[in-house]
From TrEMBL:
Organism: Ardeotis kori
Organism domain of life: Eukaryota
Molecular function, one GO term: RNA endonuclease activity
Biased composition (Acidic residues): 1-22
Descriptive protein name: NOB1 protein
Amino acid sequence: ETTEDGASAEEEEDEEESDDEGWITPSNLKQVQQDTGCCDTAPDGIQVGCVTTDFAMQNVLLQMGLHVLAVNGMLIRQARSYILRCHGCFKTTSDMTKVFCPHCGNKTLKKVAVSVSDDGSLHMHFSRNPKVLNPRGLRYPLPAPKGGKHANNPHLVEDQPFPQQRLSRKARQKTNVFDPDYMAGVSPFAENDIYSRAANLQIRDAALGAGRRRLNPNAVTKKFVKRR
């Protein structure tokens, strides 16, 4: 009985000691924040800094070389960079504006987070989410290619020729009666182009605001929309 009581007392003392070591108290809060790198105190020699709790914005600020200050320890430890990786030929490119793979030409580029180690080697961090390479919504019948100066075909390859979508000659004419070099033509009033093919497709001048144009002809359009 004495041995059992002594063993139980020792176990209780060990549990109390282990609990005291893991707790964060107001006395050791600053030390724990310094150990984890989450401290609100600004480094020495820095007079101006950016304060934000948005991790994406902190990543951009760090890549720009600006000083970022944390609020309640909410600060990322290192900046995250991204590259594009083709899951068809497994080639990578750092040009984030690419839509098609520069090596195989397929539209199979995916954004991958990368990190650079101390020795300069590049490590890619892949997502375990199976929805990243989900082909749902990518398989659909393609329409027959159409010609003409106002054709709207799907973008299938990088070097695919596209029409210029230019305005008609009547729409490009500007009638300004207050112009000192104005010469009265058939009519002194401004005429609008409403009968040409470009006007029917609602193609407008970029300076006056681009018109409504479907970039993807396979996009689903809303039907039976209630008009006010």
